[in-house]
Each structure stands twice: as structure tokens, then as C-alpha cells.
Amino acid sequence: MKDGLCTSSRGKRYRLLIAVWLVSLVVFGACGLRSGPCPEKAPLISDHFDGKFYYNPGSPTGQGEGPKRSIWGWVWLWLTREDWSEFKELPPGSKPPARVPKGTLRITSIGHATFLIQIDGLNILTDPIWSDRCSPFSWVGPKRHSRPGLLMGDLPPIDAVLVSHNHYDHLDLPTLEQLARKGTRRSLVPLGNGELVRSAGIPKVDELDWWQTLPLSADITVTLVPARHFSSRTLWDRNQTLWGGFIISGTRGNIFFAGDTGYGPHFQEIARRFSPIRVALLPIAPFQPKNSTYSSPGQSFRLHMGPREAVQAHLDLGAPVSLAAHFQVFQLGADGFNDAVAELGLTLKQGNLNPETFLALSPGQSHEWIGSLPETTHTVKRGTLGQDARKEIH
What CATH number does residue 180 fall under? Predict the structure, then answer.
């Protein structure tokens, strides 16, 4: 009887997902709702823009770039993927300091690609999302499997928000609206994303092309750097806005926030231009599980990194420490809840790398550095790794 109930429940779930998908095909086709305004036609000012589409490093055109599965391939992936029944129940981290002094760097993991970076007296937030779902709707779409690591009310004043691209799990309008109401006045975004972020109420939005730099203060500059990814908020606007990562340069070195990216030679170029990189924030999911035909290096999602590609990027960058991003919050691929962290630990072990050099912080954990490179001392709040991750690695 129990098996019969499970089978029936699974069938209902599959039929519901198919129905939701079909409805989404219709609704997502039009700009509006929480997708925000349609992107304006971008000016022809970039060597990776063909007049209509942006494209990745080494690609001749942006047209058609993105996940190579058909729509029905994505439906099949969704229906056959491992179910994330686990929910990571952790209390929010302690309230961070309002500011850190010059020469100190403090990074707090909020979850997914959201980090609070406190450096040289400034507070910077990356790809903020506090919403329960990464979706244009509050009632359907990928749902959180771990709570944000900090309460919105415990955030210090945010001087700048960095948005890497326009996907719903990275550009969340409800969260940006909350930040605007709390007094956040500035955001830095890739080309074509300015109007959408301004629509959330943030008044000063700077649009950057790859390798462009802007100052945030006398001590801090931010540079948009290439990423291998794509953009879209509907079915009809793919690659009409740019995507990228960010280098934050301060008095004690450079911090690299990768946003969302596949592996590629752009990591070596970033290292060449910005060495030494003090800390790298690198995505480790979604990726295909081991029994997938796409599991060999270089054949996983071309526009996302799994743990093996992320470790290689970590080595390319020459960073003494990398922090994992994009895991155990939203289920966006076929891998299971613990797969990315387990694979990260295995990759470090197989490469004879110190696990302390690539950390998978739980939401709410903070890592703090005091002093200059390369003799950096550090302290870690609430432990180095979550208990499950520590078991997986050791």
C-alpha cells in the first residue's frame, strides 16, 4: 500500500510539473509581472555584441547560445531529477558589524550566489535573493531549500549591489525593492540590465561592459569581467543583455565574484590582469551526476561549472582561498542535494589539495581576513564547514 501511495503521489507530481511547465511557456513569453520591463535594444559598443545578441568569449555570435537541450529535454530532466526533500534548517548568522576597518576583509555567505562583502569600510552585496522562490511568480518555481544566512533586518547599510546577470536566481526584483526601501542607492550591472534594476527603486545604476572599471570609494574599485553564461528572463529575450563576474579591488588585494559561469580560458585571463586574487567566489552547481553521459570534464553544462571545473578555475586564478557558491539553495539541475559538496571534497582529495583552500560555507557563516597577502591570517565564525560537508570531505 505504501509503494502504491508513493507511485500515485509521484505521478501527480509529474502531471502537475508538466501542467506548470506548459502554463509557463505561455506566460513567460511576454515581458511583465516580476520579469520586469523588456530590455532596451543595446547599443553596438561591444566586441562581444553582434547588434542584437551578446555572446561568450571565443564565440562568433550570441544567437542561440544557452542550454542546448530542447524545451522537452528540460521537461524530461525536471521529471527525472532527484527530489530535494531535504531542507537545511540553520539559524541565521549573527548580525555582522556595521563596517570593517581598512585592511580587513569579511565575507558572509547568505546562500546561493548572495554574499555580503565587507572591505575597507564598504559593504557590498552580490546577486541578492531573499525570496522563497527564484521565479517571476511567488507561487511556483524553484523553491528555497535553505533559509537566507542573514535576516534582511540584520544587514548593515549596503553601499553597492553587484548583479551578475538577469536570471531570476541572481536578479530578484522583490529583494532589490526591499534593499531600495532600506536605503541602498547604488548598483553595478552588466550592459542592458540598468532599466530593470532601476525599476526596483535603486536610483543609481551603472552599466558596465567586460573589463570596465568604476570606483566605489577612494580605496575600492569594481571591474566587470567575462563569464561563460547567458541571459534571459522570458523565452524571447535570450542574450539581449550582458552577463559577467566582478573583481573588487581594495587596499589588500582583489576579490573575484564569478556570478554564474561555465569553465573557460577567461579565468586565466582574469588572473593575468588582476593577480594576486585574494579570494574567489566560485559556483559549483548545477552539474550532471556521475552516471550521466555528460559527467566527464568539459562535458557537463557548458554554461555552468561543477565542482571539478570550479577547482580547476580556483587553480587557474591562483587564489589562496575560494568559497563555493550556487549550491543547496535552489534545485536547478539533476544533481542531488549533497552531490556538489561531496564532489567538491572528493575533487580536492584526489588533487591532494588542502580542503581549507576551497570552502563550502553554510548560510550565515563568515570568513574574515586581517592583514596583507600572502601571509593572511583568518578567523572563521560558526566553523569552517557545515557538519554534513565536513563528513563528506574527510
Answer: 3.60.15.10
Instruction: Reply yes or no: is the peptide bond before residue 276 cis, omega within 30 of 0.
Output: yes
In a domain, 13, yes or no: no
**How many whole angstroms separate alpha carbon 360 and alpha carbon 262?**
19
Q: What's the CA gap between 188 and 191, in Å, rounded?
A: 10
Q: Which amino acid is it at 21?
A: W
**CA-wise closest residue to 47 among 242, 291, 223, 298:** 242
**Number of domains forming the structure of the chain:** 1
Domain that holds residue 192: 104-393
337, exposed or middle or buried, with CB in 10 Å at 0-12, 13-18, 19+? buried
How many CB atoms lie under 10 A from the CB of residue 287? 27
- Under 8 Å between Cβ of 107 and 100: no
Read off the pLDDT of residues 96-154 as tens digits, 9 standing for 90 and up: 999 999 989 999 999 999 999 999 999 999 999 999 998 888 888 888 999 999 999 99
Which amino acid makes up residue 387? Q
